[in-house]
Write a structure and sequence with these properties.
The protein is an alpha/beta fold. The protein is built from 13 helices and seven strands. The strands form two sheets. Strands 3-2-1-4-5 form a five-stranded mixed sheet.
């Protein structure tokens, strides 16, 4: 069946299957189907209807990005929608099902309501960096939880534990503390050493990952340049690089702050306007790394710069929490300009 009119496609992708809905210009349903979550299943349907008549293929960001890349490689007009924005449109429908969401996304494309709701699609190598950083974060969180469990067990026996992040030190310190406790008559279960073994493995894996991350940041020219700013190390440079993707999609550098959730949320109605806390939208990892960098600039950094002077002035008028968010936001703006210009950080500007 070749469609005799233009049509719009909505895809609600899941892990096990994806719902597909196709609407014509009048909003009539031409086809509704549930298929395997792969690009081949989608293109098979489009070939039946005529690929040349498809106007837009709407899909939310998330688990269906592998489908998006395959469809883009085949030259199809795919538009990836921000779930925060599309959810408002989809919530109008009474039923919340995968086919209903697919139809809503098709309507979103047909009505042209996708303006301002689309998102940027990073290159595969930038996505690989984000995966590597997420793996590191997962290992780090596991190490922190393991350390907390070890400390909790030792505190039950009146002992405290201070240990660094280097492999080998945890086992050494725990063994030393256990010997002291045994001399004092405490009996600590040997099961504790299982946790110590886990903690050592996590430390070793984390150390290997940190070496890989540092090497990667050195070998990417953009990231190497970003690290010329005080407070920016390999993690901050890579997380910013992978979160932004393309610096030129920001016509105004100041837009990068709200994009990363570092700008105060504004709620205005009539004559009332309230500026609240930062929006916390966008990439959480990039935002947290920028805030950590801002903390270093305001506290431990010994390199004087106009950025640090400005941040200390903000802190004197407000407080440390607000100042570090403001510095993080300004860091993002400066890093974006450094990326565009290819110039190193200049503390005098």
């Amino acid at each position: 069946m070749i469609a005799d009119t233009d049509y719009w496609v909505g895809i609600d992708a899941g892990h096990a299957e994806c719902a597909i809905c196709i609407l014509d210009r009048a909003g009539t349903v031409l086809l509704e189907a549930v298929r395997d979550p792969n690009a081949g299943a989608v293109t098979d349907i489009l070939r039946v209807l005529g690929v040349e008549r498809v106007q837009a293929i709407m899909i939310e960001a998330g688990v269906g990005m592998h489908i998006v890349r395959k469809l883009l490689d085949r030259g199809l007009p795919v538009k990836v929608v921000d779930p925060r924005k599309s959810s408002k449109f989809l919530s109008i429908r009474r039923q919340k099902t995968d086919p209903s969401d697919a139809r809503g996304l098709a309507e979103l494309g047909r009505l042209g309501a996708s303006i301002g709701a689309g998102i940027h699609i990073n290159r595969p190598d930038q996505d690989d960096i984000r995966i590597q950083l997420n793996v590191r974060r997962s290992i780090l969180n596991s190490r922190i939880r393991t350390d907390a469990a070890i400390r909790s067990i030792l505190q039950r026996h009146g002992a405290s534990l201070r240990v660094g992040n280097s492999p080998g030190k945890l086992r050494f310190e725990v063994t030393r503390v256990l010997r002291e406790r045994m001399r004092l008559g405490y009996a600590v279960r040997a099961d504790l050493m299982r946790l110590v073994t886990v903690g050592e493995v996590l430390r070793s894996q984390l150390a290997d990952l940190d070496r890989e991350v540092s090497s990667l940041a050195r070998n990417i020219d953009v990231c190497a340049n970003l690290q010329t700013m005080p407070g920016v190390g390999p993690l901050t440079a890579l997380s910013f690089y992978s979160a932004i993707g393309d610096p030129h999609r920001f016509s105004r550098n100041t837009d990068v702050g709200p994009y990363l959730g570092l700008a105060p949320a504004l709620r205005q109605s009539g004559a009332t306007a309230h500026r609240g806390r930062v929006g916390r939208f966008g990439n959480k990892m990039a935002r947290s790394h920028l805030i950590m960098g801002a903390t270093l600039i305001l506290s431990k950094c010994k390199v004087e710069s106009k950025l640090r002077t400005w941040g200390l002035d903000v802190m004197s008028r407000t407080n440390f929490i607000k100042a570090r968010v403001a510095v993080a936001r300004k860091m993002a703006v400066i890093l974006l300009q450094m990326w565009k210009d290819g110039a190193p950080f200049d503390g005098k500007l």
